[in-house]
Amino acid sequence: MVAKVFISALVCLCLFPSAHAQIYRWVDGNGKIQYSDRPLSNKAEKVEVDTERNSYGGGGVLERQRDLLEGYQAKDAQQRQDKQEAAKQAVRDERLQARCISAKDSLKNYQRGALYRLDGKGERIYYSEEERATALDKYQQLIDKNC
After folding, report:
1. What is the pLDDT of residue 16?
2. Which of 26, 73, 92, 138 could staple 44 via S-S, CB 3.0–4.6 A?
3. Are 10 and 25 in contact (CB under 8 A)?
4. CA–CA separation, 85 vs 138, rounded Å?
5. pLDDT of res. 33
6. SS3 sequence, the chain?
7. Whole-prediction pTM value?
């Protein structure tokens, strides 16, 4: 089996020309520059092609592509993180706004007049002026903090 694979590879190498072909350049009778893989004129000169910098992987192309890909991935990750942070901030802002509205409503209720709470029997117990003043201060502080 190994011998068959070796012989097949050897036959392929012999039948197909080398992947590294020479390139020749010359100026034709009309003054135009011509290129070929064979010297068609005795004025043709061999051209050295820098295969290290071609687009098929030589000359650091793969490294540049890898760097670009890593850059795009990092940018995508940063955008995802920014989006998550923005969503968290939006939730915090909504909560803050809700606390602000609640504190303002409570403050208005205490400013209107006598408020009460219900005891265990369902009877009204009115807040004293001292309790009302304490509640007004408390809700004003909440407004200052949340609004």
Report:
1. 46
2. 26
3. no
4. 31
5. 83
6. CHHHHHHHHHHHHHHCCCCCCCEEEEECCCCCEEEECCCCCCCCEEECCCHHHCCCCCCCHHHHHHHHHHHHHHHHHHHHHHHHHHHHHHHHHHHHHHHHHHHHHHHHHHHHCCCEEECCCCCEEECCHHHHHHHHHHHHHHHHHHC
7. 0.45
